[in-house]
Each structure stands twice: as C-alpha cells, then as structure tokens.
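ok posting inputs for the OOB job
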Amino acid sequence: MLEGCTPWPGERARRYRAAGHWRGENLADLLSATAATHHDRTALVLGGRRLTFAELDRRVARTAAGFVERGIAAGDRVVVQLPNVPEFVIVCFALFRMGAKPVFSLVSHRANEIRHLCGISGAVAYVVPGEYQGFDHTRLALDLVEEHAALRKVFVLDREAVAGAAAAPPGVLVALDDVDAEPLPLPAPDPSDVAFFLLSGGTTALPKLIPRTHDDYAYQVRAAAALLGLDQDAVYLAVLPAEFNFTWGCPGVVGTLLSGGTVVLADAPIADECFETVAREGVTFTSLVPTLAQLWVEAAEWSEADLSSLRLVQIGGARTHSSLAARVGPVLGCRLQQVFGMAEGLLTLSRPTDSEERVLATQGRPLSPDDEVRIVGPAGDDVPPGGTGELLTRGPYTLQGYYKAPEHNARAFTEDGFYRTGDLARLTDDGDLVIEGRIKDVINRGGDKVSAPEVEEHLLAHPAVAEAAVVPVPDPFLGERIGAYVVPDGPPPALRELKEALHADGLADYKLPDWLAIVEALPLTGLGKVDKKTLTADAAARIHAADTAAP
Ligand code: OOB
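and the output
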C-alpha cells in the first residue's frame, strides 16, 4: 500500500479474501470487463451527450495513455475538481488504470482547501473545470503551481480557459481534450493499493485524506448493487456531486456502471429539471440528502412530470425527519431507502424487504456481514443493549487510518482497529441502527460537513475577533446552519464583515457562518474547554425566541 497509508491487519485481510469480499480486482479492469459485455449500451448521459460503454472504455484508455505521455506516473496523486460531467468519470478511471490516485475535491472548494489538499497529497497535477459558477479555477490552479514545487500540470476541462489564461509557465496548462493518445499496455494497479482518496468531513481544522483501495471499494459497490438488485436496466441519476461517496459508490455511479446500467449526470439538482430528466431517461433510482428530498417532495406535489420509472430514492448524509421520510414514497411513487454512511467506509441501509415502519424510523443495517459495529460509552465500554453511545466500526471497506496522519489516527482508532465515528447511535432489537446525534465537532449543513475548528481558526485570524466558537444552529430547511459566537476585540464585527473576510481568505462559501452572536465571554467546562453544549442550547433558544417574536 502507498506509503503513509495503514493496511488492514493480515488476519482480517485474509478473512475478507476468504469470504470473497476482496477479489483481487481493480476498478479499471472491472469497467473494461463490463464494457466488453455491454459495449453498445449507454453508459453515461449528460443532457444531449451520450457515451456507450465502448466509447467510455476507449476514452478511458486514451486518456490514461495521454496522462502517461504528459508525465503522470503510477503512484502519483492528482487533485480532481470537476462538476458532474462525463470527464469526471473518464479522468478517474483513466487514473485508476494507470495506478495514479485521484484526490476527490468538492467543486465548492476554494484556495484554502485546495492548497491543503495539494500540500498533504503532494499532488503532481490538478484537474479543473476552467471557470465554473463564477469562479476562475484556472487562476487558482496557476497560483498553486507557484506555491507547490510538486504540482506541475493543470488539466482544464474548458479549452477556452486555457487559451484565455494569464501567462502560465510553458507546458503547465493543458486542455483535458488534448490528454489523448493511442492506448498503451499499462501494468495493472495492485488491487490492495489505494485507488483514490476521499475527504473526511473533518473534526480537525483541515480535511484528512481517506485512502480507498480497489479491493475495498469494488466490494462496497458490488455489495450495494446486489442489495438494490441492480442490473443492466438500472438508470441512476447522479444529482448530488459525483465526488461524494454516496453518489460515487453506494452503489451510485460506479455500482451502476459495473452492473451495465446507465448513469445520467445532472448538472444542477433543481427538482423540475431533474423530473424532466427522470421522465426522458427512465431513471430508476437516485440518492438525495434530506434537504433536496424535501424540495423534490414539494415540487412533485405540483409537477405533472411522469416519475413512474422511479423505483427507489435513497436518502442519507444527514438526519431525515420521519415526517419527510413518510412523504417520499407516496409523493414520488417509489420506495425510500435510508442510508447512513461516511467517506471513511461503513454504510448502513434499510433493505427492500423491510417493513415500512423500519424504513421510516431507522437507518437500516450494515452493508456487509463482516461490518463490526460497537456502541460505547465515554469510557469505551459497550453500552447495554438498546442504549445510546458512540458508534465504533471496523470492516472490509472501512479505513484503517487517514493518509499521513499518525497522531490523529492514534485518537481516531481504538487499538484493535475500530474507527471512532463521532456519531451517537443505538441499535434496535431488530439490529437496525438509529443515529441519535454526534459528539464530533462538525456541523452538518444540509449534508455538507463543516469542521467547527476550521471555521474558528479563520474567525480568530480576523482582527476584530478575540475569541470564537462555532456550533450548529437549528434550521428548518438545512437541519443545521453554522453559528458563530464571537468575543470581540474592540468594536463588534458584523456577520457580513466576517463572511467577507473568510471568503477573501479562500474558505469555501458553504463554510461561512450563517449566524452570529456577540458575547462578552465564552462559557467553559470544568476542564476549561469551551462548553459547546451550552452554546448549542443557547443558540437554539435564541433562534426559537426570535422565531416566536417575529410577527
Ligand atoms: C456521508 O458521508 P460524509 O463523509 O460526508 O459524512 C459522514 C457523516 C456521518 O458520520 C454522520 O455524521 C452524517 O454524515 N450522516 C448522517 C447520515 N448519513 C451521514 N447523519 C444522520 N443520518 C444519516 N442518514 O454523508 C455519506 C456517505 C455515504 C452514504 C451516505 C452518506
């Protein structure tokens, strides 16, 4: 395994192989094998663009050869930041084929996040859209090339952005279309090695990299596809960003493709547009965060679009209210599946044969019979059956350690390799998991995970801020928004001023505080730490008071 990663201990690795979970296959060959069977069937759709499996496989092979020609080598890390376009799939599988490792960045990430990803991964290349949603990614990429010695290539989706870019060192900027060469025989990547890196939602100030191996991810998508009964008739609508684990492989994009089905990419999650796409392409399933599901349900009540092809909607990424869960099936005319998951691995899902009661009230059961789950109290002891505690897990597709993070790993894992999820959960008598809350210092803003310490660090850098604490504040639509408690240094700053400063710092917009309270001091716990429980309760009370006072 790539240096800086933690392999599974030998005994467990042997067990996962013996059970047939890990089959020694790599994701690139799995796609080629599917393409050999399904060549003329449609693999990818975006608007009017359609690629058959044969075309996709050929584009992947030519792009891999093109990357080699441009000096990208096996083992190299490449930061990939693209919207939901076929090129995202092509670039990732091309990198898999040549043994280079994509680092999945969110399109909404800005200088602050990408600088960190380039630094920690030692990336040699960065793949960008060009200008996207008003942001000039090419400009940012060129700035980062100057800062990071290892970073020497920027591949740009939009050819015109290459021509229009300010002076760049020769050979650095390359249009993605030009990454194209006669396919080469390339050595197959090692299935037990890293295929790509996902990002952690982050309890620490900056996101950590999650190595996912070919073996572990191939197993995850195969098991998830089997659970949903996917076959070549599956049509998956990728509404959420494709780089989100939920969208990419639960079973998502990869699971659908490897089943010979069709992946339809949505370039925006707007309900009405998605409904037209569902009707036009005969979409059979999709995955949504609760916030989007809410919008879809509201829009569907008025829409005349034909959604009859839709068989299943998966909802996950944040807590789903039972009232929303109850509306999904009747309004969208399909089954609901609750999914609890994380980029780190463990997935729990309700099963197609579960009673409605179970589907509405729980987050289902672990995907694999070899997922081990424990619920523990603060001292690390198992709580009595049915009790709530921190969820710990280990298994055949759950990481054993973040990339190059030994100190953090020592805290994030138990000695016997269980990952401390930071989520509070309980198990029902039937073995279903119910997520009850969280102890990690993260805000789940409609499915977007925001590390409180990261936002605090940026707030503290502002001259008008002496002390800062960031906590979730309740929001009827997003579930939670970002609340900031600030002790000012001089005249109190306004929310807008802080947001502008953090934006100018290069922090992604979804991490900017939504709500501000100016206070004289932050409450402390007996141990002298900021008492976030008290602040969270205080924020909820203030919002409630403001809501009830409103005319
Ligand atoms: C998914 O992955 P991440 O890595 O963005 O976030 C993981 C965290 C979990 O630890 C939990 O705190 C929260 O998101 N979460 C949920 C949830 N699903 C995720 N909280 C309550 N209810 C749920 N159903 O979010 C993710 C990855 C794969 C599949 C689905 C979601």
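notes: The first helix runs from residue 10 to 18. The mean pLDDT is 96.
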